[in-house]
Amino acid sequence: MINEKMLKLGTKRSIIREIFEYGKQRKAEIGEENVFDFTLGNPSIPAPKEINEAVIKNLERKDAHGYTSAVGDNKFREAIANDLNKRFNTNFKFNNFFITYGAASALCSTLRALLNKNEEVITFAPFFTEYTVFTEAQGGKLVVVPADKKSFQINFNAFVKKINKKTKAVIINSPNNPSGVVYSEETIIKLTNILKDKEKEFGHEIYLISDEPYREIAYGVTVPFVTKYYHNAIVCYSYSKSLSLPGERIGYVLVPDEVTDSKNVYAAVAGAARALGHVCAPSLMQFAIADCANLTSDLKAYEENRNLIYKGLKKLGYKCVKPDGAFYLFVKALEKDAYEFYKKALKYDILVVPSDDFGVKGYVRIAYCVSKETIINSLPKFELLMKEYKK
Amino acid sequence: MINEKMLKLGTKRSIIREIFEYGKQRKAEIGEENVFDFTLGNPSIPAPKEINEAVIKNLERKDAHGYTSAVGDNKFREAIANDLNKRFNTNFKFNNFFITYGAASALCSTLRALLNKNEEVITFAPFFTEYTVFTEAQGGKLVVVPADKKSFQINFNAFVKKINKKTKAVIINSPNNPSGVVYSEETIIKLTNILKDKEKEFGHEIYLISDEPYREIAYGVTVPFVTKYYHNAIVCYSYSKSLSLPGERIGYVLVPDEVTDSKNVYAAVAGAARALGHVCAPSLMQFAIADCANLTSDLKAYEENRNLIYKGLKKLGYKCVKPDGAFYLFVKALEKDAYEFYKKALKYDILVVPSDDFGVKGYVRIAYCVSKETIINSLPKFELLMKEYKK
């Protein structure tokens, strides 16, 4: 009688949450330091102190808690434009930005704005599991291109077979959750060239939606800024990772002027946000981040963690593509069934996420946004796990 | 090519926003004190000082900016349950509450959770204009029962003609935006008795969705707590008005145990929130409000305003039902066409909202959440306006 789809979405626990809950219980039993919990992509580095200072400062505004405009605070939007223009040599103005409740709301508003019934959205495995939920709830169908397991860049042969007249948008996520891989400039050029050709062939727009909450978390590689490569690129961003503010739900949709009918696309994003019940993003936090738009948390610790765990696991004989960004490592399971491997790892109190829900079989995701000690102390356990498979 | 409905929602400016923008411009021209702007329902009383203190205190939590659980922080949910139980002699537990991005997100999540295609939602004129947007975007159809213009309680004769097998839910909003009227206990009993009968007649649940952001703003009358009168009542709340925090986007959906299959309804609300891109409500503000759940802003000023403007306008010969709550007055226009009346009022720099979008013709809404001076100084202007019509 109630909506069955929503009931299913609300009752089907995500495997990540399930493992997380198990981890909580296990920590209570044997002590936090003895559980090696690599489950959640929750920033372990605190927000920069300037954020809290800015919160306190902005509390004194008369409008600290008032509605901002539905599209977001103008000064905040200006600060974002200035920051990006400086770093990427772009030419954005404040009114290219629509402020959202983080990346999830940015993606949902964008998809709802673009999609008509039965249109398709393509993404590339491995991919963030919620893309399926967001796309279907906004009336579309998510089409998954299988992974290129050698590099976890894009499997272009498979992609050109999937793209068709119904394709309305393509979602990319680089640096990638769960692989940690950064799409190279070569990949972005190849992808956008195909999109340009297909736009001509099909005679309609194909939007490239770049979901990039991990943009600032990259180690010694450049993350190509997609709007410079493709006219119909729309960026969905969140401050959850770069400023370690996942709970504050602030992000944006960037609709560059180069997008076909960009004013209408922007207006449709605003209309979609309204239809989804997003009135305006939280005001005090908009004001605070406006003062810190050019900052990030001290992200170096993630790179140290990456080096530690990547080298450590490689040395033990584990196989994985070197991740250049985000805070994830995508490791080949030591048996075919990732879920079975995950369960064996549990015996050593190692908590990792089997890859099936990310659209690839036979891997596990390790979220290394944890303390250095957790990584160091986990390595002997990973060694025991490896030994069990070699028996 | 993009979604036409969303484009329309994003481009069609609401009349309220239009008037508001005009007001801003006019204030720049002739000085703020010379424009009598009764357009927006934006709290004029500041948040209690305890809120800012709680924000600063909670900034010191290690998890101040971290994700809370998707359903909301447990301590916050507990504080809400305790506060309601104390005031209304109810028996709620923390897990009856799902924390949302304010009332808009609460309503959208609830509607999406309940509605299947082509089902109907009934509401009573005058009504908050966004109900149409929210209901249609979640797949339903909004059916409006015409107003009882004598009292702005419920027009029951019209209601029983509209309710039918397709009716899945009824939305009420008391204290009401835009009329300021509080539904009496008699009204609530009559309404819920009809709903109980119709549930039996049709053999399925009919949910009563009570949108009550103005619950705490009532002057000497009791606002009946609906869950005590009806088993399938779901409450949508926001701290926007009672704590003067409209920009912070914190509210909740309350699904009492008495609701049929309440666990499933709650799960469907959670699933719907997920589908709409609501990850968790802003964390720092959840923690801060948890410490202030039993407080309100100093709401007395609204009552003073109500008395001033109600008595003042009555004395001048204006007609309106005495509002016992919220901060709105619904005044009969001095000519048939409310829009024409609104335009005449503009000549005296009085800014009010014509009633057409609220589902009633021939009235204007006066939002008296303004300074006392604005009201006092507006009365001679209202007198001139009245004189113009008496000429």
Strand and helix layout:
2 copies of one chain form a homodimer.
Chain A: H1 4-11, H2 15-30, E1 36-37, H3 49-58, H4 74-88, E2 97-100, H5 102-114, E3 120-124, H6 130-137, E4 141-145, H7 156-162, E5 167-172, H8 185-202, E6 207-211, E7 233-238, E8 251-254, H9 262-275, H10 283-290, H11 300-315, E9 328-332, H12 338-346, E10 350-351, E11 353-354, E12 363-367, H13 372-390
Parallel strand pairs in A: 1-10, 3-4, 3-5, 5-6, 6-7
Antiparallel strand pairs in A: 2-8, 7-8, 9-12, 11-12
Helix pairs in contact in A: 3-10, 4-10, 5-9, 11-13
Write up this protein:
The structure is a homodimer of 391-residue chains. The first copy, chain A, has 391 residues and is of the alpha/beta class. Chain A has 2 domains: 138 residues, Aspartate Aminotransferase, domain 1 (Alpha-Beta Complex); 242 residues, Type I PLP-dependent aspartate aminotransferase-like (Major domain) (Aspartate Aminotransferase, domain 2, 3-Layer(aba) Sandwich), CATH 3.40.640.10. Helices cover 41% and strands 13% of the residues of chain A. In chain A, the strands form 3 sheets. Chain A has a 7-stranded mixed beta sheet with strand order 2-8-7-6-5-3-4, with helices on both faces. Chains A and B meet through helix 1, helix 3, helix 5, helix 6 and helix 9 of A and helix 1, helix 3, helix 5, helix 6 and helix 9 of B.
